[in-house]
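To illustrate the input format used throughout this study, we show a single complete record. The first block contains the structure-token representation of the backbone; no residue identities are included at this stage. The design step must infer an amino acid for every position from geometry alone.
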């Protein structure tokens, strides 16, 4: 949803769905993402990482455990997500993590961003009404040489083999939500958008998280959980009965074909850099 709506309170049932989606994204997709980012500078050489749109903190905590020398400054517009993040830190304390609520386009930065030499923008630019403006803010506020690690979906390349009408229906619903809520599919547009904002593109590639990488049952459940979450925002597009039929069809498909059922969740990963001062 657009970032201004994303800051609104979420009811408990919907919040639980969001948390499950955010945690599952990190569990399934971060290993391949991080391996690629490490080739382009992510690691203990990063003394301070800015995580914009940190959600409930699963990605930040994963990176902090991997790079113990790295400090993290985490921001999100949604207070409920940040409250959940703080609860997690109570159970797993980490003094090297700072948490701040921040609407990137409407409020001054809560901390000096020039203290960071890297930033993560993971599956969050799509929720802004104008992602270009976010990138411009970061170019102006981050120090020259700062690296940006950016992840966005490219759902137009998603598929399942053997083909299944229920899977096509999921993609159709996703696209209807994007159109209804004016959420762009940014993946393939990221390199040009980054360059237009005055940042340097170091590398960009398509990453296909497949049922062979993360396990068909886990990836299937991710699609189903996301479908339930998506349905909340346009409930009139498909009835609950239709959603249940889609879920059952997917599970039947997996039961029939097992590991022979091949499907992917595609992303575009882009590494950018704040240019040196002229």
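Output of the design step:
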């Amino acid at each position: 949803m657009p970032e201004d709506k994303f800051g609104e309170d979420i009811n408990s049932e919907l919040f639980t769905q969001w948390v499950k989606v955010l945690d599952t994204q990190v569990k399934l997709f971060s290993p391949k993402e991080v391996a690629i980012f490490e080739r382009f500078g992510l690691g203990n050489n990063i003394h301070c990482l800015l995580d914009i749109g940190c959600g409930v903190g699963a990605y930040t905590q994963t990176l902090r455990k991997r790079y113990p020398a790295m400090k993290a400054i985490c921001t999100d517009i949604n207070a409920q997500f940040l409250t959940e993040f703080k609860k997690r830190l109570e159970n797993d304390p980490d003094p090297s993590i700072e948490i701040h609520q921040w609407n990137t386009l409407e409020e001054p930065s809560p901390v000096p961003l020039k203290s960071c030499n890297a930033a993560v923008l993971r599956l969050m630019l799509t929720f802004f009404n104008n992602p270009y403006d976010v990138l411009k803010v970061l170019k102006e506020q981050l120090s020259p040489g700062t690296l940006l690690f950016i992840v966005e979906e490219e759902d137009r390349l998603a598929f399942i083999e053997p083909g299944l009408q229920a899977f096509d229906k999921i993609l159709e619903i996703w696209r209807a939500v994007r159109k209804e809520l004016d959420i762009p599919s940014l993946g393939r547009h990221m390199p040009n958008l980054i360059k237009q904002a005055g940042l340097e593109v170091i590398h960009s590639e398509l990453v296909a998280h497949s049922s062979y990488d993360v396990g068909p049952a886990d990836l299937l459940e991710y699609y189903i959980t996301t479908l339930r979450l998506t349905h909340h925002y346009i409930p009139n597009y498909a009835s609950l009965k239709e959603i249940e039929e889609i879920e059952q069809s997917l599970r039947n498909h997996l039961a029939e074909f097992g590991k022979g059922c091949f499907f992917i969740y595609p992303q575009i990963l882009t590494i950018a850099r704040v240019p040196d001062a002229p």
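Structural context for interpreting the output: The first strand starts at residue 48 and ends at 52. The mean pLDDT is 92.
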